[in-house]
Write a structure and sequence with these properties.
Helix content: over 70%
Distance between the termini: 35 Å
Number of strands: 0
Radius of gyration: 17 Å
Shape: rod-shaped
Largest sheet: none
Length: 62
């Protein structure tokens, strides 16, 4: 949940925050860091779900 939240906050800040826009390149870097950390935190969940789906698919083929 934390990873998804950070991705959402990073996108919101990048698209809708006037403060980040006024900061220029530093603002873009701040919003990109939020999205990157959120994606890194949600990676383990995506890997787990992929393994479960692959295992389930291989069991059906047997």
């Amino acid at each position: 949940m934390l990873g998804t939240s950070l991705i959402a906050v990073g996108v919101y800040v990048h698209n809708l925050s006037e403060t980040i826009e006024a900061m220029g390149v530093n603002g873009i870097i701040i919003s990109a860091i939020g999205v990157a950390i959120g994606m890194a935190l949600s990676l383990s969940t995506k890997m787990y779900l992929t393994f479960v789906l692959v295992k389930r698919g291989s069991e059906r083929n047997l």
